[in-house]
Amino acid sequence: MMAVYIGVAVLIVAVFAIFGGMKWAQNRALAAAMATPTPGPNAGSKAIALVDGGTIGASHFPVSDTRTGGRGQPVDGLTCLSQEGQTLHIHSHVALFDHGKQIQIPRFIGFAPNPQLPSGGCLYWIHTHDASGIIHVEAPDLHPPGGGPYTLGMLFDVWGQPLTAGEVAGFKGPVTAYVNGAKYDGDLRAIPLAAHQEITLEVGTPLVPAPLYSWPPND
Q1: How does pLDDT run across 21-32, given as a tens digit for each residue?
Q2: 9 burial type by CB count under 10 A (0-12 exposed, 13-18 middle, 19+ buried)
Q3: pTM for the predicted model, two decimal places
């Protein structure tokens, strides 16, 4: 019987170890997603204050115009929910320039009508509340269904706007990108939407220094 008791004890310890390892991995993934990056060498020297409910840039896009993007159907595996997800809640920032002129990222990207819901609408895991350029990732899971991070490409797919090396949201020309002030030469769609990630997309010239932002308290 002693061998049976020992075997049961070992099994219990193994189960606790497995669940402990899973919890550790989840906490580590959450901490990595919420880590604030360090500004790169090309960031603007004076921080621009971000304000919830504010606007940055010239108005160009209609509010909540996602006719070619999310209209309630899943987009890149992201569903449209009746309320924000609670597992992951982080904010990134996107600044868009067209030939040196800053353009507003519009309010209510990711808000969609849905007559089947009592509220009459739904909200994607990635969305905007205002025209400040702050991007909200409020998701029920740490990672999207396909794995990896939530990305800039997902935001543009929900919005229904193109994002390529030669076009951003209808503005056409060579695109220069900065992530936290450092020049980015990779796939624009793959840029992760990490906590306090500052993404600058500049179409054409002249190029302006990538802005540096200060975040609202508790944001």
Answers
A1: 433 333 334 444
A2: exposed
A3: 0.79
